[in-house]
UniProtKB/TrEMBL annotation:
GO cellular component annotations of the record: plasma membrane
Protein name stated in the entry: Carbohydrate ABC transporter permease
GO process terms (BP): transmembrane transport
Pfam families linked to this entry: BPD_transp_1 (PF00528)
Protein localization: Cell membrane
UniProt keyword list: Cell membrane, Membrane, Transmembrane, Transmembrane helix, Transport
Domain of life where this protein originates: Bacteria
Every ABC transmembrane type-1 domain range: 76-265
Residue ranges of the TM segments: 12-37, 75-99, 111-132, 144-161, 190-212, 246-265
Bilayer topology annotation: Multi-pass membrane protein
Record-stated family: Belongs to the binding-protein-dependent transport system permease family.
Main location: membrane
Length: 279
């Protein structure tokens, strides 16, 4: 009797779990499906009340108009340079800072780390004006470097890699010193390779957040040839009216690189999420 009840209870729990997962999956996938269907509608059909789910006649001209409205080639290149620059800076500077906070002993270390935590908890929007003024005074707005600038130093990356280095026993560094390594050699030859999983997770999240950044590229670059995919798509939105099918078609083009990367590095994405959740 108890065995039957347990089996029945497990079956009921399994059904409820899968039902919740299916509902959650539908909720997450629906905006993507709606985007595709809207990209295939005409302008009048996209704003019709009540709305239609499927297009009456597929309107593929929206994709052609999106390609001719924006220089997607330059937008892809600018976005790739921005993402690459921010990822490299996050790895290099966050690794060194995280190592210093975790393994070195110097005066004021706790105070400096507290300031890093405070900066990490602040919304990024409050730094937009000071950062823009800094670049403007040295004449470096309207440039690729301006897109990378906010990602030169990552408070989250510093904290995240500091936690990774804290998990490495001090005996490993001491053994490296006994083998003749100086402090710098112990860092980049011994300790840095041991944080590979954390570096991979930081790379993934830095790339995703940089790719989706909209506000900063809109502020710092007004030349369409220096914009990113997100800021370039924003120019398709009119002041009074917006051609939503064309905007959705352009958004689909913008999703392609990240979707391809996800399909290629799906395992690393999942491991990165699991690692950050575990921390």
């Amino acid at each position: 009797m108890n065995r039957t009840t347990r089996i029945g209870g497990k079956s009921a729990a399994t059904v409820i779990t899968y039902a919740c997962l299916i509902i959650g999956s539908v909720i997450m996938i629906f905006p993507f499906v709606w985007m595709i269907l809207t990209a295939l509608k005409s302008m009048s059909e996209s704003v019709r009340i009540p709305p239609t789910f499927f297009p009456e006649v597929p309107y593929f001209e929206n994709f052609q108009y999106a390609l001719t409205s924006l220089p997607f080639g330059k937008l892809y290149i600018n976005t790739a340079l921005m993402v690459l620059g921010r990822v490299v800076c996050a790895i290099v500077f966050s690794s060194m800072a995280g190592y210093a906070f975790a393994k070195l002993h110097f005066k004021g270390k706790n105070l400096l780390f507290a300031l890093v935590l405070i900066q990490m908890m602040m919304p990024s929007q409050i730094f937009v004006i000071p950062q823009y003024e800094m670049l403007s005074k040295v004449g470096m707005t309207e440039s690729i470097f301006a897109l990378i600038f906010p990602g030169l130093v990552s408070a989250f990356g510093t904290f995240f890699l500091r936690q990774a280095y804290m998990g490495i026993p001090d005996e490993i560094a001491e053994a490296a010193y006994l083998d003749g390594c100086n402090q710098w050699q112990a860092f980049y030859k011994v300790l840095f390779p041991l944080t590979g999983s954390a570096i991979a997770a930081l790379t993934i999240f830095t790339a995703v957040f940089a790719y989706a950044d909209l506000m900063w590229p809109l502020v710092v670059n007004t030349d369409i040839n220096l914009m990113t995919l997100s800021s370039g798509l924003a120019t398709l939105k009119g002041q009074f009216t917006t051609n939503y099918p064309v905007l959705m078609a352009g958004s689909l083009f913008a999703m392609v690189p990240m979707l391809v990367l996800y399909l290629i590095f799906q395992r690393q994405f999942i491991e990165g999420i699991a690692l950050t959740g575990g921390k």
